[in-house]
Amino acid sequence: MSNKRIVVCGGNGFLGTRICKVAAGRGWDVTSISRSGEPTWSSVTSSPTAPPWSTSVSWQKADILKPATYKSLLKDADAVVHSMGILLEADYKGVLTGKESIWSGLSRAFSTSKRGSQNPLEREEGEELRPQEKDGQLTYELMNRDSAITLAQESFFHQVPSFVYISAAAGAPMLPKRYITTKREAESTIASSLPKLRSIFIRPGFLYDSSRSFTLPIAFAGSAGNMVNSMIGGRLTAFAGAAVEKPLKADLVAEAVVEAIEDSGVKGVVGTQRIEDLANAAWRRGML
């Protein structure tokens, strides 16, 4: 019996590398797709040196906006993962780094709408996505929504049985509302337009790891907020969103993603509790 084959788009990122690691550890054939290929290891782990397991992964270069550059890599895959969303758009980043004025940057970042690509549902197979903002900006609509819908379509075209979209538990007060609305639009469009594709929508809160020390105090504050929110019956959720969702270790979420693919009964939205349950199931199996 041949090994399972998984393709992780965004496989050289913070969560993507960990998904690749878990899948490789199970003996799966693993392909990572990103614009730069192999990760800059110091940005995703605590060491600049490539870990031993990385030699088990095929680190491929491709452009998520140009399906022609990656569609051949989907052939014979058992699962495809989209882990390429963006947290901050260029306007917001420009404000934080001082490259753009606070007023112009934030007014654009928090605008009620921006354009993504042409309608991805009306694309021809392999047709690239064309950014519709006049400056070609990588917007939430383009990266969080349209690129995911397109990758799901291409997966379906290539008869991939399972598709995993790394979504989010909720938005947060410090993020534009469009961050989460575009993720929800991606989920609903994929589920409704590709009903024969087993789609799994992973919705974690904040991800942390000791290799990124700045994530630890944020996770601590999030854990405290989650505890308070639980004590008052979840009344903070509507306002604070992901800020009061239980933070999760990135390795745990990666385990859950691979376990969800393995478990044919998993489909649709997978929230925090289910993520933990799946990771625990994987851990128990590993102990046997």
In short:
The protein has 288 residues and is α/β, with parallel strands linked by helices. The protein contains 10 helices and 9 strands. The protein has helices at residues 14-25, 41-44, 90-97, 102-109, 140-157, 178-193, 215-231, 237-240, 250-262, 272-287; strands at residues 5-9, 29-34, 57-61, 79-82, 162-166, 198-202, 207-208, 248-249, 268-270.
Description:
The longest helix is centred in the middle third of the chain and has 18 residues, at 140-157. The protein has a seven-stranded parallel β-sheet with strand order 3-2-1-4-5-6-9, sandwiched between helices. Helix 5 (140-157) runs parallel beside helix 6. With 288 residues, the protein is α/β, with parallel strands linked by helices. Helix content is 40%, strand content 13%. It is built from ten helices and nine strands.
Radius of gyration: 19 Å
What structural category characterises the helix and strand content? alpha/beta
The run of helices and strands is EHEHEEHHHEHEEHHEHEH
Give the strand line-up of the largest sheet: 3-2-1-4-5-6-9
Biggest sheet statistics = 7 strands, parallel
Oligomer: single chain
User: How much of the sequence is in beta strands?
Assistant: 5-15%
Task: Give the overall pLDDT as a whole number.
Answer: 91
Note the topology.
Elements: E1 5-9, H1 14-25, E2 29-34, H2 41-44, E3 57-61, E4 79-82, H3 90-97, H4 102-109, H5 140-157, E5 162-166, H6 178-193, E6 198-202, E7 207-208, H7 215-231, H8 237-240, E8 248-249, H9 250-262, E9 268-270, H10 272-287
Parallel strand pairs: 1-2, 1-4, 2-3, 4-5, 5-6, 6-9, 7-8
Helix pairs in contact: 1-9, 3-4, 5-6, 9-10
